[in-house]
Amino acid sequence: MYLEKLSLTDFRSYAQVDLTLEPGVTVLVGYNGIGKTNLMEAIGYLATLSSHRVSSDAPLLRFGTERALIRAKLVRGEQSTVLELEINGSRANRGRINRSNPVRARDILGICQTVLFAPEDLALVKGDPSNRRRFLDELLVSLTPRHSATRTDYDRVLKQRNALLKSGRTGKFTAGHEATLDVWDQHMARAGAELLHARLELVERIRPHLAKAYAQLTDGSKAADAIYRSTLQGMMDDDGAGAGYTAEPAAVERVEDLRLLSVDELTQRYVQAFAASRRKELERGISLVGPHRDDVELILGEAPAKGYASHGETWSMCLSLRLASYYVMLDDARTGGSAPILILDDVFAELDVQRRRKLAAIVSGAEQVLVTAAVDADIPDELAGRRVKVVPGGIDESESR
Q1: Stretch 38-42: mean pLDDT, rounded?
Q2: Is the pLDDT at 82 greater than 60, yes or no?
Q3: Between residues 247 and 353, which one has the greater pLDDT?
């Protein structure tokens, strides 16, 4: 799959911009702050309904406007698809597929698939667990769009359950609240089990690709791995029964036990865990157990990458995670999915010459690679391709080649 045309209206710095693309490598060149990343951000947003730079939609709207519009023409084999996404400041976002009637924004998920590399990816290793959970969930939804509803359902139930727990903290918790909390426990246990089950399967798919990608980018002296750390595991004793809540991470072998459980079995474990942690949850007014508090521990050699990896190793681990997601998508493409568009947003300026060349050699064979750079000198020779000059407010076709 590749992106043939991109059109933005009132998105970030652009009142209107139109960009024509082609398969292979395209490098967008322009000085820092000119708007190159805004173009890549729009493509990524079309794929995931979220930005890699900000957590809300408001900054995506050009200042003083109430909506932004992303239009894209995607080509897969002999078939083309036109997607439109309307980002609204005061109401729900809407999408269109081939100029049909408007649909929910999430209904377009899975049509445009991307893997986006950016300097912000350092947070995957150095940041808090929410960054790694987001990485997993976005990849999960890209591969299986129905999991967007799974994640939405879980977030909705979590919000309701937390509101009820807060009422207990303020002394307003009654017998009626207790019964209501039992009901929300059941809802959250089921939604949490479905999300956890999907994440555990995805991590197992990622792990061999992560090891492969890290070896490709480095001298291979250290092995990279990823271990899913579940708060549910912290509630289990050796027999699998409910135990007192602990924030300590589970042992590796116990995480493997979770992976062997069905959604129904995980649901029952969550119900037990909620019961065991109820007193502490009422004291603190928040849900202490669930996928919203899980983490993915990244391992380099024998130590956690976070806190132990050098700057170069951290970059290699971040790049390897993105490459692993790319390889997982390629696996999916062989069974009917689409190969993703690779986006490298101002990444090469952050890398040494050796890592630049290795990364370029790995991605150069992708169906479409979009790269941004401040100067041509940042781009390795392995990524020879079309050059597009980005200027204030748009594209300079006369200087593009």
Answers
A1: 97
A2: yes
A3: 353
Structure tokens belonging to residue 153: 């359902």
Amino acid at 352: D
Residue pair 365/383 in contact (Cβ under 8 Å)? The answer is no
| Cα separation, 54 vs 61, whole angstroms | 12
H/E stretch holding 206: helix 175-217
CA gap 53, 165 in Å, rounded: 32
- What confidence tens digit (pLDDT) does each residue in 121-173 have? 999 999 999 999 999 999 999 999 999 999 999 999 999 999 999 887 666 66
pTM of the model: 0.91
User: Which CATH number does the domain 142-298 belong to among 1.20.1050.90, 3.40.1390.20, 3.40.50.10490, 3.40.50.150?
Assistant: 1.20.1050.90
Instruction: List strand residue ranges (DSSP E) for 21-66, in order.
Output: 24-29
Whole-angstrom distance, CA of residue 310 vs CA of residue 212: 20
Q: What six digits make up the tokens of 164?
A: 């009820």
CA distance 145 to 160: 24
Show Cβ contacts of residue 91 under 8 Å, excluding neighbours closer than 6 positions: none
